[in-house]
Amino acid sequence: MNSLYFSWKAIWKRRSSTIFISLIWATGLLGFASIQRLNNGVSNALQLQLENTDLLLSAKGSPTRSILANVFHLNEPDGNILRSEVDELIRNYNLQNVRRIAYGDNYNGFRILGCDSATWNNINYIEIKGNLPQKSNDVIIGRNVAQKTGLKIGERFHGTHGLMEHDHNHETTFYTVSGIIYSNAPSWNRLIMGSMNSVWRAHGYSDSNYTAVLARIDNPLDKLLIPKKIQEESSIMAVSPAFEVNNVLNWMHQSSKIFSAISFLFLITAALIMFFLLQSHVKERLGDYALLRALGASWWKIAKIVLWQNIILGSFAILLTYAGLAFIWFGQYTSITLDEIFQKEVYWDLSLDIKWMFACIVLSILTSIGPWIWLQRIPLHRALVDS
């Protein structure tokens, strides 16, 4: 007698309740898996973007808005800052790994960012096709820009005024695509990056200043003191991006704990329903188990039949969970906001699922022990007569 086959036939006879329990179980598992992926995807993307960035210098305004605009390139900056004043601060405070940026215009809604070689060298990239900008009008575009605009290496285009799509074009200033970058950090994949001179030239050098400056501070104590000193002594806003982002991540982690607790309640509910369903099934099929014992089946054989039923239920719940994750994955491509902050490379890292998959199998085993013990305490010879 095949224990697995017998268990499958028993499950199939009550397939409606089987699907119901698996859906409840999968809902809880999907909650755990999706929250974990969201936390890891966003956290990794933020950490990659903030690497070597301890200080952000920008125009006075909201620190959060400044970080979103100048670090993650998700918002519009508050304005420009004077080159002379910034260069003096860089010298006075001995800032390291300084990256100067200046916002230009846009092309089909994708921002053109003027930057220096230090910015290009600071990009976390998987691959670069072509070359980094070498001439004054060369630009390197992100993967998303290439996919959605169809631009290829060697092609020329001109920018449109402002950071959003607009009717006014700078038809006299052309950019040439020198390369395409594939980055781990989502924000680089949706930017067009060229030299600051090209951005200034497009505007006739009327505003040859910086939009922001990013830098590294090596001394841990200076990381706390320098932003405060700059705020007090200059007209420039100094922000610690890591500090601001950590606040956001702490809020995310607190929120994820609430959703995890709700998912855990779904799991407990599914486990209890499964326990009582199996108990009910054992009572209904008591004559069949008595017959198996009469034919020489051991208690261990009976235990395997009971156990396999729960394992099948748990496995079906895991399959439904991955079906839900696949649905969310394809839904991400229609969500521009999520695509801009989420590192998709970690989404199908199955090592993230080992813990909850192991917990699912253990729960399947534990919920089958009770009905099996109850089955042993019933006089099966009487059950065989009654059946």
Give structural notes.
With 387 residues, the chain is α+β, with helices and mostly antiparallel strands. The chain folds into two domains: 184 residues, no CATH class; 185 residues, no CATH class. The protein is 57% helix and 17% strand. The chain is built from 14 helices and ten strands. Strands 1, 2, 3, 4, 5, 6, 7, 8, 9 and 10 form a ten-stranded mixed β-sheet that branches. α2 packs antiparallel against α9. The longest helix has 44 residues.
N-to-C SSE series? Answer: HHEHHEEHEEHEEEHEHEHHHHHH
Rg from alpha-carbon coordinates: 30 Å
Low-confidence stretches: none
Share in helix: 55-70%
Number of helices: 14
Q: Give me the secondary-structure category.
A: alpha+beta
Shape: elongated
Beta percentage is 15-25%
Biggest sheet, in brief?
10 strands, mixed
Q: Report, as a whole number of angstroms, the end-to-end distance.
A: 21 Å
What is the average per-residue confidence, as pLDDT, rounded to a whole number? Answer: 80
Number of strands: 10
How many domains make up the coordinates? 2
